[in-house]
Write the structure tokens for this entry.
Amino acid sequence: MDLRKWAYEDIRQIAQLEKECFSDPWSFSMLADTFMNGNTVTVCATEDGNVLGYGFVVVAGEDADVANVAVSPAQRRKGIARKMLESLVSKAGSLGVKRLYLEVRVSNAAAMALYLKMGFVGRYVRPRYYGDGEDALVMVKELG
Ligand SMILES: CC(C)(COP(=O)(O)OP(=O)(O)OC[C@H]1O[C@@H](n2cnc3c(N)ncnc32)[C@H](O)[C@@H]1OP(=O)(O)O)[C@@H](O)C(=O)NCCC(=O)NCCS
């Protein structure tokens, strides 16, 4: 498995994985806009030309937001998300980011377990944050 930043050619596969992993997926064009945005740090895990997982962080000065992290259902529990997050944290830190935020659905126990293991802590709940009415837990990791 290889970890690297996105290439434009990856976006088609990433958009497909978005549909498989989220009930409210980002579209191809939203992902392409993100890719073009100079304030975004991206990572994808690939093997034999296949994208197994991906993630990205949007940087705004000393704060940044983990926008999405997902791994293909067939490739989960192999440490891929943890490795991608470690890479995103390291790159964000080298850009001067001091605090990394994210929102996670309160029902998403797998993601919360991952983020807790990665040193994120829950800060507060955003009621009805998602389009279907579900609450989000806002989590933050202070970078050293
Ligand atoms: C959440 C997600 C990204 C985790 O990806 P993954 O590659 O399977 O995660 P990892 O293998 O790196 O797991 C690292 C740790 O996170 C925790 N974890 C991950 N999945 C878990 C699960 N289903 N149940 C409980 N803990 C879990 C564990 O502590 C795990 O360590 P362990 O395997 O040694 O016990 C993946 O389940 C996914 O893509 N879900 C759908 C998209 C999503 O919800 N993304 C997050 C949006 S906020």
Q: What stands out?
A: The mean pLDDT is 96.
